[in-house]
Design a protein that fits this description.
Elements (H helix, E strand, L loop, with lengths): L2 H42 L1 H4 L3 H48 L6 H13 L1 H9 L1
Helix pairs in contact: 1-3, 3-4
């Protein structure tokens, strides 16, 4: 498997794990809020007290699913924004280094620069300090 594909697969796995953890947290939080509101409504509102148990369970599940979806989407969007920022930063650095060498920063040149950078990160770090 090529380096860009491997990097893409790692990104997908990382995004999936972040989204899963956040979804579980959101479902727990939303379910807790729904359960709390249902209990408060049951003891303070006679109309709600007359509602069936399955309907109250449906309301709690709806809150849990809403929390799951919203939290998972928010976490994924934050991760994507972070990855875009990192990618733009790397591309900016590649364009700068390629321009210093007199190379036009095309996609192929940037990919080659990135492969060279990934294979020997120590050399580039010492160049950047000077």
């Amino acid at each position: 498997m090529s380096a860009p594909r491997a990097r893409q697969r790692e990104d997908v796995e990382e995004a999936y794990s972040i989204q899963t953890r956040s979804a579980i947290e959101g479902a727990f939080r939303g379910g807790s809020i729904g359960l709390g509101l249902t209990i408060i409504s049951h003891y303070s509102w006679p109309f709600f007290r007359r509602q069936t148990f399955p309907f109250k369970g449906f309301l709690v599940c709806t809150c849990a699913v809403f929390g799951l979806v919203i939290n998972a989407e928010r976490a994924l969007q934050e991760y994507e924004a972070l990855r875009r920022w990192e990618e733009n930063d790397i591309r900016k650095e590649a364009r700068f280094h390629l321009a210093q060498q007199g190379i036009i920063p095309t996609e192929t040149a940037i990919a080659k620069w990135r492969a060279d950078r990934d294979s020997s990160p120590r050399e580039l770090n010492t160049e950047q300090r000077n």
